[in-house]
Amino acid sequence: MSVFIIGDVHGCLNTYLSLLDHWDPKTETLVQVGDLVDRGNFSPSVLQLAVELKKNFKKEVHYIKGNHEQMMIKYLIGKDKQKNWLFNGGQLTLHQFDMLNIDPGNYLNWLMDLPMVWENDAIKVSHAGLSGIGNPEDPNNPDGYLWNRKPLIKISKLQVIGHTPRWNGKPEFNPDSNSWNIDTGAYGGICLTGIKLKNDGTFLETISVPTDERDIGKIK
Fold first, then answer.
1. Predicted confidence (pLDDT) per residue in 99-138, tens digit
2. In the chain, N or C terminus with fewer CB closer than 10 Å?
3. How far is CA 42 from each of CA 18, 64, 96, 107, rounded to the nearest angstrom?
4. In the record, which residues are listed under signal peptide (predicted)?
5. Where are the beta strands (DSSP E) in the chain?
6. Quick count: other Cβ atoms within 10 Å of Cβ 177?
7. What domains can you pick out in the chain, each with its CATH number?
């Protein structure tokens, strides 16, 4: 099986569905780099889709935790005293749950169980990458897997990350760290990107779909 890795979705359901049309579950493992929620118009539906895909394709589908999932978790368990999540897209997400009469707490356990890393012998996928500073799995480490903005260190595996948008709409390969950043600003009206790799990390192709206007405009 090859690997199809998808960047930050941020509530852009229709865009995500368009990109999933390029996934073949019979031949490709699907990995998503985190930040399913916030910013876009359909965070609850994106979460519902993720849960269903993971349920139906247990071995073929893998979701990892992003910093927006971590902020949502912290808010839902009552530890977000400064309400940082609400100022980073959470208020819109809560409104979307309210409009659908769905309790966001229904997803709490699923979100908490998300791993921070997916990897095989040649590829390591995390939300923000390995900086080499502090414990990468500490959810409060600003240079860890959830929050890092510093340059990545080069390791024995190809790293694939999201987190820091590429506003030119083009994923970037950095040979110095042997890494890909595939966040191409879906919530900002640019595009959502997926990268296909062989299991050994060999590049196959990049697929980007423009952001669907329904995902970011005002809902009529």
1. 999 999 999 999 999 999 999 999 999 999 999 999 999 9
2. C
3. 14, 19, 7, 15
4. none
5. 2-6, 28-32, 61-63, 117-119, 123-126, 158-161, 172-174, 179-181, 191-197, 203-210
6. 19
7. 10-215 (3.60.21.10)
Which tokens belong to 151?
């340059």
Other beta carbons within 10 angstroms of residue 87's beta carbon come to 10
**Token digits of residue 115:** 């791993």
How long a stretch of residues is the chain?
A: 220
Q: Cα–Cα distance between 166 and 143 in angstroms, integer? A: 19
3-state secondary structure of 90: helix
Tokens of 196: 């296909």
Query: Which tokens in the block code for residue 215?
Result: 């995902």
Other C-beta atoms closer than 10 Å to the C-beta of 214 total: 15
Would you say 138 and 86 are in contact if contact means Cβ atoms under 8 Å apart? no
What is the C-alpha to C-alpha distance for residues 94 and 109, in angstroms, rounded to an integer? 17
Over residues 158-217, the pLDDT tens digits come to: 999 999 999 999 999 999 999 999 999 999 999 999 999 999 999 999 999 999 999 998
